[in-house]
Amino acid sequence: MHKNPGGVDVVQHFTFSKGEREALGFGPGPELGIVKLHVTDDKIWSDVKAGKYPEVSIGGDGERCAL
């Protein structure tokens, strides 16, 4: 379903519970996730600024590390 075109890196991801969401002023609603991306490909960045990508679908894998 997901294709990795390259040129975009996930830099940070925040998740908020319903309570945290309301406490931060996002209002009521479901749990919330915010993803911070860094676009390194000039063509993709140009398309983003032109509104070609109004939504982003993220697929990937990761590794949980002990703190």
Give the topology string: H per helix, E per strand.
Answer: EHEH
* End-to-end CA span: 32 Å
Number of separate domains: 1
Name the structural class. Answer: alpha+beta
Helix count from the secondary structure assignment: 2
Form type:
extended
Question: What's the mean pLDDT score?
Answer: 83
Keywords, separated by commas or semicolons:
67 residues; alpha+beta; 2 helices; extended
Detailed description of the structure:
This protein is an alpha+beta fold. The protein has one domain. The protein contains 2 helices and 2 strands; from the N terminus they run βαβα. The chain has a two-stranded antiparallel sheet with strand order 1-2. The longest helix is centred in the last third of the chain and has 8 residues. It is extended.
Task: Describe, in short, the structure shown.
21% of the residues lie in helices and 25% in strands. The chain has two helices and two strands, in the order βαβα. The longest helix has 8 residues, at 42-49.
